[in-house]
Give the backbone structure.
Amino acid sequence: MLTKEQNALLTQTEPGTPMGDMFRSYWLPALLGEELPENDCPPVRVQILSEHLIAFRDSEGNYGLLNEFCAHRGVSLWFGRNEHCGLRCPYHGWKYDHTGQCVEIPSEPKDTGFADRIKLKSYPLIERGGILWTYMGPPDQQPPYPEWEFIMVEPEQTFASKRLQGTNWLQAMEGGIDSSHVSWLHGDALHHDPLFKNTKGGEYNLKDKAPVFDVIESPGGLYVGARRKAEEGNYYWRITQYVVPSFTMIPPRGDYTLHGHFWVPIDDTHCWAWSYDYHPTRKIKPEEREAMKEGRGIHVKCKPGTYLPVATKENDYLIDREKQKSGAIASGVEGIGMQDASLQESMGAIVDRTDEHLVSSDKGIIMARRMIFRALEAMKEGEMPPGRKPEDQHVRSAALLLSGDQNFEEAAAEALRAKKGMEPATV
Amino acid sequence: MLTKEQNALLTQTEPGTPMGDMFRSYWLPALLGEELPENDCPPVRVQILSEHLIAFRDSEGNYGLLNEFCAHRGVSLWFGRNEHCGLRCPYHGWKYDHTGQCVEIPSEPKDTGFADRIKLKSYPLIERGGILWTYMGPPDQQPPYPEWEFIMVEPEQTFASKRLQGTNWLQAMEGGIDSSHVSWLHGDALHHDPLFKNTKGGEYNLKDKAPVFDVIESPGGLYVGARRKAEEGNYYWRITQYVVPSFTMIPPRGDYTLHGHFWVPIDDTHCWAWSYDYHPTRKIKPEEREAMKEGRGIHVKCKPGTYLPVATKENDYLIDREKQKSGAIASGVEGIGMQDASLQESMGAIVDRTDEHLVSSDKGIIMARRMIFRALEAMKEGEMPPGRKPEDQHVRSAALLLSGDQNFEEAAAEALRAKKGMEPATV
Amino acid sequence: MLTKEQNALLTQTEPGTPMGDMFRSYWLPALLGEELPENDCPPVRVQILSEHLIAFRDSEGNYGLLNEFCAHRGVSLWFGRNEHCGLRCPYHGWKYDHTGQCVEIPSEPKDTGFADRIKLKSYPLIERGGILWTYMGPPDQQPPYPEWEFIMVEPEQTFASKRLQGTNWLQAMEGGIDSSHVSWLHGDALHHDPLFKNTKGGEYNLKDKAPVFDVIESPGGLYVGARRKAEEGNYYWRITQYVVPSFTMIPPRGDYTLHGHFWVPIDDTHCWAWSYDYHPTRKIKPEEREAMKEGRGIHVKCKPGTYLPVATKENDYLIDREKQKSGAIASGVEGIGMQDASLQESMGAIVDRTDEHLVSSDKGIIMARRMIFRALEAMKEGEMPPGRKPEDQHVRSAALLLSGDQNFEEAAAEALRAKKGMEPATV
């Protein structure tokens, strides 16, 4: 349970807020590469951390992420023409390059140097792993480029999607490190989802619905360990990775791909739910990739040409009360992603954490909040928060069988670090 | 005319408001029985007096009305699975019985008694006359079950419906005790509606458009008497019943059924308009019941599977300007219920009563407001408001012909009390 | 660049605001004549300067513009029946004449004179040039009827339309006196629009994209002169008329009609964009009139039976990225009117003028603001603002070729005044 002030501190990310400053200290996923598919393609509106931005890809392939509005009289550059290494406002022809520098004002005499003095706020935008990343903090504190394993493997080994969620980022992230709800909410997926079904691990998940949690601090965040009963006094361990502030990675099952999420605030009542799947040592099979595109596994079916889910609050998330009654689907909502999203949206856009009752299985959530509070305090003293260093990002989730007296931290130490060519630890 | 403060006092019903406290001292209609048609059927969201609640019917037929959100992390229990005498949240499987008591937390050790200490806010929900009633006040002040005649007769003798209205409860209720507007707004119904047309009373209504009002306090509210000219110095009297805070009953016509309304605040800008029809001594005929279901009489045609009217502000209430021009329908809007609703919504969600001009025919409204103000004052001293006692609810509206020197209060004394087997007084 | 306070001063026009008072000192276009096509036709809701009004045309052809809501209990008179020289509220039959005087209250005794004491707020509404004009200021300060040339010529010589715009009036008006953007934003129209294409003037427009501005005060506002290079040291001059507060007139081209706009605040975030076309000495040709109705030239295609554009923010203004890429249309949006509207709406409902960068081509805008500020100051001292006198309204825009040393003010002096039968100055 948080105080009202604590809840506000964690959930508000506008410019000038402490949590907004923290988010602005990382490389954040801003767009899918497919949104800017070629040089001189149309610009795309981007809203992150309550800032209105415009992204474009110039004639030479440079990516730009600028303040959305023309410096002259405030027209949205979404109407801009992307031409000859710049975005030109169609109102009076002012033109900006990918750094936000104004390079031409047709109505002004060229010799005054007026255009040179006009520069839009802009942020670096780089491509890595099929995703365009931005860093919105002070230039002199820019961290190294991101090195999450899912963007460092070959393109054939990875897949990412994004979808709009009508909630604050925090309650989405808290769902992501909540290893306990899978047995309830996503039980159906362990039976039927083409990217989850019929694994030994899934069986343990379904059998023991009272996992015991063991959460340990990691260099960049937390190892959220959940222990379930297996055969003969052994335990089935699932260790979720959490890296501050909003990277999560779900433990794998069988030979399926590894997966996880990024939750990026759009504003305080909306976030992008980024979902990735990858395998460290093999290609994603065509039928797997097809299933991901169709919204199976942790991905979500969206309206064509958009990143807006087909199932929404307005259509009651297409709930199927018959399937719920028969026990086929616990909530009656289809799909892992929408199961999470529907429940999280039902909490209200910013859940009231002054009126919650956390239990032992929420240990990951409790410790993640504490970690963020501590990092916010440290930032006041000029310290950088965890999760910025590449080594903080070289993480993997893991699932493994251990005997009763084995400590997961030791036993899984290697499995929890990303290492090129190393097989994932999975059951 | 009210002051701004008086208007706020009467129209605000959130928890903690004086008017909210008054509403919370009664049994209020919360749902139609048909909304929870069988044991273990899907739960239903209910919003009353600005509180978000969830209603369900358990495996043994008990009705529950609980806080909508799971105590754990705030998920809406609308997604809950109704199973084995409880509603189970699909996120982590927390289960609640119909009293709001948490009976299972699967992830927690059973012996800690943690679940026993979790109880959602809940209100009693009982069935009477095909309607589910709730009492949202302090348990030790719960009044006896409601005894309105329309819920005490046999099911074959009664019919009820509800519809959403986009206004505060008060301007809806004020329409309900306004016996003067029928001659104008609903004139067409007296000619053509299958549940109103061609009665002697209707004729008097249409002929004399300047009724004289005589309003008298009753044990639970008001007798709103309206006198119109009849033959040979006689008067046609219509006496509307008003019982505090929001029960109204329209005087009957010919052999048709008796009818009236309850207006229940959803929040301060929406209310449920409950409409009932019944006959104290005979069954409702099949063709009458069919007409009521189709939205004739005081009922309203709703979108299939909902309680939302087909005619809305967005479609201009399907106004027919030709019928208005020809004089067939005064406002051009079809149906008694939508005629009222459309005009009341056009006043704005909460009408500005600092800028009204009441006249003698508004005497019922003026006295009803005074009565509520007095009751609110009395509540400060610990007194209960009128309308809670069963005898306050044993009322009937009446229509009768009286000679010029007859006092309606005496002449209609018996007719204004509900009495099993007694014929209604109607013209 | 303005301060926040200055921006608020110019953009807020509710009752009681200084800018609202200024707008209320003029005859403003309120409805198209076609909206009240015949005596006793249905009434029409009108919102101007944040006031909710109802317009109707009585049995004798008088126009009324009244407070929208019945004085009794606040019902919208949009539901009123227009009958026998009055609008009758359908709730209780109160009836008002076109001056707002209550002429009948059926439920009240006639001899009390109560109705005589009820009068709705009302404004004069007169027809001139196919447009209904209202004056919303103090009756004793009512100016003479409007005498803009487009409403003084024969009906065959003029055409007007209106469309909703989702912005404050000021950023719309500022687009109207911005003679520089045509070369960019509307370049396509100079090639293809049936009401603009292929003129000598258009060619100069397209060739010289850096016009030099010369802005001079006129009796009622400004002459916004823009000079572009023509042959042999000559200049192509375009002189836009601006009359305080929101009348603008675009310089003509070739033999086409003259045209311009009125921008009338609905509330602070919406305005009506009025667009007119006329010719001082000839009829509008049938094919021209047809093109105007279809939304060509400065007019806009609206949804049938409404004044709401087909192209909206929700459908991305039907932007055609292919046509933008090919250079056929600078912004990709079809039509002069929607090109302006889409960009102006993209600035946000009230553009933030504390964060703009005006340049020399914005001289008209800068001087117009100053003129309004000065007029607002003068109003404090009891002076009337410019633009109210008929002679202030006898203006015409003009386009002409001048030699390098010619002063446009002298050379165009006659051309800039409307004079019956005089040919327009156009190139």
Observations:
- Chain B touches chain A at residues 40, 42, 69, 71-76, 78-79, 81-82, 90-93, 105-109, 114, 118 (CB under 8 Å).
- DSSP finds 13 helices and 19 strands in chain B.
